[in-house]
Amino acid sequence: MSRVHSSPGDRSATWRPYPFSWVPAAGQRHATAASGWCHGERVVALCGAGVAAVDSAEAWLWWTCPRCDVKAHELAGVPMPGSSPVVALRWAGAR
After folding, report:
1. Is pLDDT above 90 for 90?
2. Cβ-proximal residues to 71 (8 Å cutoff; 6+ apart), any chain
3. pLDDT at residue 8 tops 80
4. What are the two backbone dihedrals, phi and then psi, of residue 45, each rounded to the nearest 5 degrees?
5. What DSSP string describes 7-44?
């Protein structure tokens, strides 16, 4: 579970069961290896995009970036729901 930090210097630890956190940015929910982020901070998403974090309640309801979703499932060792890993990668546009 990721947490928006209230100040740029706040990097306090939170519970992270996997080596990624979710961050709303660029109109989607992205996953990032960054351990913490602040509103407006640029992070590199698992899909490879450099995005600026958004701190709003509505942003958490945005669609999940499909490429980040596939990468997050791979890192977690959990198959994509309802499909094999090969189908999931093709669905996300990976080659």
Report:
1. no
2. 20, 31, 46, 47
3. no
4. -80, 160
5. STT-------SSS-EEEEETTEEEEES-S-B-TT-EEE
Q: Please give the Cα distance from 56 to 33 (Å, whole number).
A: 20
Q: Are 46 and 71 in contact (CB under 8 A)?
A: yes
Task: Convert the pLDDT of each residue in 12-29 to its tens digit.
Answer: 556 778 999 999 999 999
Q: CA torsion, points 70, 5, 51, 64, in degrees to nearest 10?
A: 30
Residues in the chain: 95
Measured CA distances, 48 to 9, 27, 41, 43, 85 (Å): 25, 15, 16, 10, 19
Q: CA geometry: angle at 5 spanning 15 and 44, to 5°? A: 85
Cβ–Cβ under 8 Å, residues 41 and 52: yes
Give me the sign of the Cα torsion angle 60, 56, 68, 31.
Answer: negative
